[in-house]
Amino acid sequence: MPCTFHRTARSCRRGDARRGRLIVLALKTCLRFFCAAVAVALPASLIHAALPAETPDVSGPSSLAGQLLIAAPELREPIFDHAVILLAKHSREGALGIIINRQAATAPIAGLLKAFGEDASGVTDSVRVFIGGPVDPAIGFVLHSADYQRPHTLDIDGQVALTAAAEALRDIGLGKGPQKSLLAFGYAGWAPSQLDDELAHGVWLTVSEDLQLVFDDDRANVWADALERRKPLR
User: Fold this and answer.
1) Mean pLDDT in the chain?
2) Is 1 within a domain?
3) Segment 21-77, tens digit of pLDDT
4) Would you state the pLDDT for residue 113?
5) Which residues of the chain, if any, have pLDDT below 50?
6) Phi, psi (rounded to 5 degrees) for 38
């Protein structure tokens, strides 16, 4: 079985269950005390720095960007156990996705902005905070509906998009943000050809993106609901 602890090449080593529990605990602790505040102040260009190159994968299957990856029932590593991942990028250089069913907290936007040293005047509402994956948990992303666009927004497929947290949070708090969104720290990353190999070995199942699954479905039901909607790859 291939390495299934999905990280970039520099960190792709399969961890044992204890290591997985420690990663999840560290991520939740980080979010609880807002130690990821520095991530929200990072420049938007970091989204594109974190993503694989734009070069299409001409040597393998078509890009699966915009698809949902469903962890196979046999995948029991804690952070990926029953995970559902929105794949934001998939090319010959690798892949990147955001776990959409690992909610860690719900936080007032005003409180977040104040903790980050940002102006919170006029800001209302709260955001769901998710553990997006084990790679670079200090980087914040807002995954959102594509009705909202900033200069550095990554439009994944015309339905969903990804924007650096710093650019989107205040707009969301002022009622000028996207219709649907979630805030995530960290991401799941794959080295070149790694995801394709894992798909071939049945580590992941795929299903077409569904906005209800991504943003509205009860997070406790996302994995089961995604599995029910799965169709075989062409």
Assistant:
1) 78
2) no
3) 433 443 443 443 333 333 333 444 444 445 544 433 333 447 899 999 999 999 999
4) 77
5) 1-49, 52-61, 233-234
6) -60, -30
142 within a domain of the structure (yes/no): yes
Domain count along the chain: 1
How close are the terminal C-alpha atoms of the chain, in Å? 23
* d(C-alpha 202, C-alpha 215), whole Å: 26
On whether residue 3 sits in a domain, the answer given is no
Cross-strand pairs, 96: 89, 189
Count Cβ atoms below 10 Å from residue 176 Cβ, excluding itself: 10
- Three-state SS for the chain is CCCCCCCCHHHCCCCCHHHHHHHHHHHHHHHHCCCCHHHHCCCCHHHHHHCCCCCCCCCCCCCCCCCEEEECCCCCCHHHCCCEEEEEEEECCEEEEEECCCEEEEEEHHHHHHHCCCCCCCCCCEEEEEECCCEEEEEEEEEEECCCCCCCCEECCCCEEEEEHHHHHHHHHCCCCCCCEEEEEEEEEECCCHHHHHHHCCCEEEECCCHHHHHHCCHHHHHHHHHHHCCCCC
Answer yes or no: are the C-beta atoms of 188 and 135 closer than 8 Å: yes
> Any idea what the CATH number is for the domain that residue 78 is in?
3.40.1740.10
Cα 134 from Cα 114, distance rounded (Å): 26
Cβ contacts of residue 10 below 8 Å, gap of 6+?
Answer: none
Answer for the pair 36, 30: CB distance below 8 angstroms, yes or no. yes
Question: Looking at the domain assignment, is residue 137 inside a domain?
Answer: yes
Write out the residue range of the structural domain in which residue 99 sits: 9-229
